[in-house]
Amino acid sequence: MSKIFETPLYPYTRHADQDAATPARHKVIVIGAGPIGLSAAIDLANQGVQVLVLDDNDKVSFGSRAICFAKRQLEILDRIGSADPFVEKGIEWDVGKVFFDDRQVYDFDLLAEDGHRRPAFINLQQYHFEKFLVDRVRDLQDQGAPIEIRGQSKVEAIGQHDDHVTLEVETPEGSYTLEADWLIACDGANSPTRRMLGLDFVGRVFEDNFLIADVVMDADFPTERWFWFDPPFNRGQSALLHKQPDNVWRIDLQLGWDIDKEEEKKPENVIPRLKAMLGDDVKFDLEWVSIYTFQCRRMEQFRHGRTLFAGDSAHQVSPFGARGANSGMQDTDNLVWKLKLVIDGKAPEGLLDSYNVERIHGADENITNSTRSTDFITPKSDMSRVLRDAVLDLSENYEFARPLVNSGRLSVPCTYDGSPLNSADALAGPAISRPGSACPDAPLPDGFLLDHLGDRFVLMTIDADASDRFVEEGVEVTRLALSVRDDPTLALQRRYLGDAPSGVYLIRPDQHVAARRETFDETQFRTALRRATGKE
Amino acid sequence: MPDTLILTPNIEAADDFYADLLAAHDGLDRAGSDALNARLVLILSNHIGDRAVLAEALDAAGAKSK
Questions:
Q1: Contact: B35, A386; criterion CB under 8 Å
Q2: Are residues A71 and A156 in the same domain?
Q3: What residues contact A246, with CB distance under 8 A and at least 6 apart?
Q4: Are A450 and A511 in contact (CB under 8 A)?
Q5: Which of A133, A271, A385, A480 supports an S-S bond with A379, CB 3.0-4.6 Å?
Q6: How many domains does chain A have?
Q7: Which residues does residue A286 pair with via DSSP β-bridges, in sequence order?
Q8: What is the rounded CA–CA span in Å between residue A158 and residue A169?
Q9: Both A34 and A128 in a single domain?
């Protein structure tokens, strides 16, 4: 068994900044080298923005943690490099089974839609995920990109100023001071940054505990997601079994909120639970066990002057639905292009407030879904339990009840409906690509659509004339001319035109739709571009 | 299916239906009856399907108990 999470990946080394007479100033500092912090840094470095990542550790995360990565996140990985290593290592799955009490009530197939480059989901341990991102950082460094990770560099104090942030960084050789024009805090649910700035979460919808175990076994379970409601081996609670690469199986046992965490974590208490779940004759090794406590809540604001919060530091949800790491990656996907424009002086600082608006919308959507899943999984009143059990009973024989079964609504890309960056929808096209949507992928003769979008504003025309390029207040838009004549699967037509004869889309650097019309109108699209960059 | 909730008499042989409803609960304890009622609500709700009609039904049922 590889112990990837025991090898230092970015060990501490002394840096000239530590001996500088005056504090070194960095363009962007990211706190936290987890999936979100590394994604943010890679995205920035790709676009030529100098970035330094500080992490209090020097290794990938311990244990599997976030294990389920959705298509949108793989598309983001493609945009900032390549999702290939992740997809090759990861496990694809599309079948799920639902158990209630002592029996299976039904199974389902996710029936992933054709015509997308990436699968609906892969399962991959967070430590592999982080390792691949660090590999990407090393590749960028080899190409001379301005990106650096400093391990065992713990931020002990933060000073906020109008035009920069100061950081006190503790290392094995003492502390030193750094400055940054911008700070992105990706330091997790217990974010020290949040604490140091005296900020806290609002709302406390609920709290629960999970025993999370990685077990290694050669058992012949199929690659499926198995979910139990109220099983004999975990009465009144839920359980989840999911396969990961390397014959590692992830088991989540819900424990409820009133538990003794240290007691529950002891192997003599864990192993009998797992035996009851897997059967006495199944041989397994317990690789990692942890108690995960979550609360479902978010910060009131994700932007505080020059400090921006992303990922779990800004919001937390229950594990059902794989909405933690997935939503965190949507945060930085949303943030980085805006920050780049502001740093380059091509957009007002106010554009960053739209990060707040759009990602709070995303966080609230996740919290709503997560709360509903939890209400189904752990009914809060006698009658909600009666109704829940009725749904599960009916689901065994009647298909109609199955959409009501809620073991987590799996993460799908957030649509920024109502965002101040959107222009009013001016195309009688499909809802799936309305302003605010993440562009759905589609096969093209030379690959996939999303490979042609991202990191810049694109004017996508489908059977419509337009300028090949225009510049509005320093922001350039380049055209991508497509036609349904080159649309063998009709996916482009179905996803972007519907019944409309033509379409012109203004697409943001994060591959979200800013505006769409049936034909090109330069004045309208210049206005749309100003709006999408916080100038209207 | 009408697009507003019917709140005027709509069941033929109402007494027979009511007897069927009671008979369905024969021999059940409180928990069993609660479960049956819940299944029945879900089945009928799915049959109606229309969210606006269901919302009217929830309002009408809730108003009665106030």
A1: yes
A2: yes
A3: A1, A2, A125, A216
A4: yes
A5: A385
A6: 2
A7: A215
A8: 9
A9: yes
